[in-house]
C-alpha cells in the first residue's frame, strides 16, 4: 500500500493524470522522488503511440510537442517561465528569489516560452520515428527525471520553503540518491548502446549548468529551478536526437 501511495504522490504532484488522493505524510513521501521517473515512462509511451499513428508530419510533430505538456499539466514549464523571468532581471539573489515567488508572468517569461515552443516544435518536425528512436526517447524522458530527483536529494536548497524543499526534507536522501544514481547510470549505458550517447552528453551538460546557475544566481535550487532544468534538458536532448538522426547514427 505504501508503494502505491508513494507512486500516487509523485503522479499527483508532477502530472495531470488522475490518481487516488492520499494525505501526504512521512511514509509516502520518503521515496516519492524515486517514483518521479515513472512519469517519463507514461509520457514516452504516449509519444511512441503518436509516432506510430499514420498522421501527417506536422500533426505528428504537434503531438510530440504537446504530449509532455498535457501529461504534466505544464508544471515544469511554469518553473521554466518563472526562472527565465528571474534570470532576466539581473537583480541580486534576493530579488531573483522574490521573482520566483511572484505568480505573475513577466515579459521575459512569455518571450522565452514562445521561443522554447518554436524550437521544440521545429525539432519535432525533424524527428523520423522508428521503434529504436521511440525506445531511446522513452529512456531520455526517464533519465531527465532521474537526474532531477537526484539533484533535489543532492544539491543545496535556496530556501527553506517551497516544493523542492518539501520533497527534499521528506525524502530519505541516502536511499533516494543511491536509487536514482544507479537508475541514471543504467539509463545512460542503455541510451549509449542504442546510439544515443549525444543525448546522454546533452543531459549531463545541462545538469552541470543547472548546478552552476542555481548556486551562483540563487544560492541553491528551488522547485522552479528544477522545472527549468527539466525543460532545458528535454530540449537539448531532443536537439541531440535530431542531430544523431541527421548524422546517420540512428
Automatic annotation (TrEMBL):
Keywords: Cell membrane, Cobalamin biosynthesis, Magnesium, Membrane, Transferase, Transmembrane, Transmembrane helix. Its cofactor is Mg(2+). The chain crosses the membrane at residues 28-50, 105-130, 136-158, 179-208. Pathway: Cofactor biosynthesis; adenosylcobalamin biosynthesis; adenosylcobalamin from cob(II)yrinate a,c-diamide: step 7/7. It catalyses: alpha-ribazole + adenosylcob(III)inamide-GDP = adenosylcob(III)alamin + GMP + H(+); alpha-ribazole 5'-phosphate + adenosylcob(III)inamide-GDP = adenosylcob(III)alamin 5'-phosphate + GMP + H(+). GO terms for molecular function: adenosylcobinamide-GDP ribazoletransferase activity. It is found in: Cell membrane. It is an enzyme of class 2 (transferase). It is a multi-pass membrane protein. It holds the Pfam family CobS. InterPro entries: CobS. Its EC number is 2.7.8.26. Joins adenosylcobinamide-GDP and alpha-ribazole to generate adenosylcobalamin (Ado-cobalamin). Also synthesizes adenosylcobalamin 5'-phosphate from adenosylcobinamide-GDP and alpha-ribazole 5'-phosphate. Belongs to the CobS family. PANTHER family: ADENOSYLCOBINAMIDE-GDP RIBAZOLETRANSFERASE. This is Adenosylcobinamide-GDP ribazoletransferase. It comes from Faecalibacterium faecis.
Amino acid at each position: 500500500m505504501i508503494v502505491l501511495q508513494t507512486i500516487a504522490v509523485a503522479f499527483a504532484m508532477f502530472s495531470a493524470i488522475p490518481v487516488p488522493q492520499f494525505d501526504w505524510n512521512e511514509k509516502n513521501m520518503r521515496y516519492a522522488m524515486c517514483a518521479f521517473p515513472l512519469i517519463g515512462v507514461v509520457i514516452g509511451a504516449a509519444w511512441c503511440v503518436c509516432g506510430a499513428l499514420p498522421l501527417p508530419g506536422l500533426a505528428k510533430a504537434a503531438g510530440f510537442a504537446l504530449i509532455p505538456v498535457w501529461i504534466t499539466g505544464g508544471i515544469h514549464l511554469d518553473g521554466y517561465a518563472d526562472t527565465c523571468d528571474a534570470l532576466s532581471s539581473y537583480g541580486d539573489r534576493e530579488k531573483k528569489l522574490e521573482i520566483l515567488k511572484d505568480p505573475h508572468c513577466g515579459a521575459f517569461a512569455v518571450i522565452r516560452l514562445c521561443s522554447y515552443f518554436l524550437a521544440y516544435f521545429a525539432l519535432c518536425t525533424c524527428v523520423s520515428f522508428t521503434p529504436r528512436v521511440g525506445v531511446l526517447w522513452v529512456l531520455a524522458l526517464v533519465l531527465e527525471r532521474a537526474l532531477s530527483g537526484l539533484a533535489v536529494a543532492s544539491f543545496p536548497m535556496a530556501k527553506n520553503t517551497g516544493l523542492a524543499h518539501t520533497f527534499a526534507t521528506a525524502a530519505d536522501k541516502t536511499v533516494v540518491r543511491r536509487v536514482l544514481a544507479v537508475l541514471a547510470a543504467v539509463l545512460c549505458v542503455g541510451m549509449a548502446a542504442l546510439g544515443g550517447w549525444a543525448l546522454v552528453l546533452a543531459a549531463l551538460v545541462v545538469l552541470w549548468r543547472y548546478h552552476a546557475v542555481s548556486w551562483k544566481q540563487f544560492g541553491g535550487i528551488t522547485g522552479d529551478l528544477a522545472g527549468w532544468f527539466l525543460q532545458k534538458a528535454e530540449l537539448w536532448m531532443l536537439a541531440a536526437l535530431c542531430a544523431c538522426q541527421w548524422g546517420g547514427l540512428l
